[in-house]
Amino acid sequence: MRALIQRVSSARVSVDGETLGRIGAGLVVLLGVGEGDGDAQAARLAAKVAKLRVFDGGAGRMDRSLLDVGGDALCISQFTLYGDTRRGLRPSFTGAADPKRGELLYEGFCRELEACGVPVSRGRFGARMAVELVNEGPVTLLLEA
Asked: Model confidence over 6-28: pLDDT tens digits?
């Protein structure tokens, strides 16, 4: 399981002009589910996202978590995080979980993040989405479980 996280001051996701989710300060989580992933990876990655210290605290250091700052998360399914271009110019997605399993684990990750105490907004699994965000820092990290 892979999560590309971006620290944001605001973000929103829409499908066909309809806003599905919107957050203020927090994290945008682009989540990719791999073929070997399961519930344990979803729980571990959600806990890490909730507790990851990427927000500024005292002395200009990143030492506060999403929980510490009371931020929100906007979770977007992103199977393209498993795109493999080692053999050419068109990505292969054979490492991504099948859509049915991917959706179950995406929803499981979101529930686990909520169980950690983080308010979660979501995109729509499998849809073509428009994501708008203001990346603060910029801070962008790739996490794997």
From this structure: 999 999 999 999 999 999 999 99
Known catalytic residues? 78-80
Phi, psi of 97 (to 5 degrees): -65, 155
Instruction: Tell how strand 55-56 and strand 26-32 pair up.
Output: unpaired
pLDDT tens figures, 77-105: 999 999 999 999 999 999 999 999 999 99
Pseudo-torsion of CA 106, 108, 114, 120, nearest 10°? 20
Alpha carbon of 5 to those of 18, 49, 74, 76, 89: distances in Å? Answer: 23, 8, 10, 10, 25
By the 10 Å C-beta count (0-12 exposed, 13-18 middle, 19+ buried), 1 is classed as buried
Find where tokens 């105490």 sit. 117
Q: Is the dihedral of CA 44, 47, 52, 58 positive or negative?
A: negative
pTM for this predicted structure: 0.95
